[in-house]
Write a structure and sequence with these properties.
Strand content: 5-15%
Number of strands: 6
């Protein structure tokens, strides 16, 4: 298995990242300009795609993980990297060095990038796992959350069962969670011209 710290240069769909710093060496200022940006009308494109999905969708060529998930068989053993695995990659750490956890979740550009990073290192993966988290749902329901380093998720206003009216039981999904669908679509567009494998979500 390739160990992240032994990889000299990480190739990406749009360029390269500098090698990890040597012990005792000051980390260079991170520049994320190499990360491809989605078109400004991404949401509009995504909605159009959804409206014409039957004709617009290009199915995955590698369906091994889907075949197994449906109880079937596959000629090969599906392999994938869980979202959490990306936390150990230096390129993921570089993205997180300038963006908070929820900033990455809410940015289709960054979410797609960190979703695809394991695939760049291991091109034979059978699927990619979209970078998101179940915590985006309570946030959409009116419970602001912050990911504290070394501590984990902290709700600024925990749910009070004696005052449930503060919870938005039926949030507007498009307005509050549209960025998740946008991230999936941008990941799909970035994958489409290179390798067609499923985009999954694990909560």
């Amino acid at each position: 298995m390739v160990q992240p710290d032994t990889v000299a240069v990480v190739e990406t769909p749009a360029g390269t990242l500098p090698p990890p710093k040597e012990a005792g060496e000051a980390a260079p200022e991170y520049d994320d300009s190499y990360i491809p940006a989605p078109p400004e009308n991404l949401r509009e494109l995504r909605r159009e795609f959804q409206a014409n999905r039957d004709s617009a969708f290009r199915p995955a060529l590698d369906t091994s993980i889907l075949d197994i998930a449906r109880g079937g068989t596959s000629k090969s053993v599906p392999v994938w990297a869980m979202r959490q695995a990306g936390r150990y990659l230096p390129e993921f750490k570089q993205v997180r060095s300038i963006s908070s956890f929820f900033e990455v979740c809410e940015s289709p550009r960054l979410a797609a990038e960190v979703t695809l990073q394991p695939l760049v290192r291991f091109p034979d993966l059978s699927a990619v796992i979209i970078f998101s988290d179940i915590l985006v749902i309570p946030v959409a329901m009116g419970m602001p959350c912050e990911m504290i380093p070394g501590q984990g998720p902290v709700f600024k206003t925990p749910l009070d069962i004696e005052n449930p009216d503060t919870l938005i039981l039926k949030p507007n999904v498009e307005n509050t969670l549209g960025y998740v669908f946008d991230a999936i679509h941008w990941t799909y567009l970035r994958l489409e011209s290179k390798v067609r494998i499923p985009i999954l979500k694990n909560f």
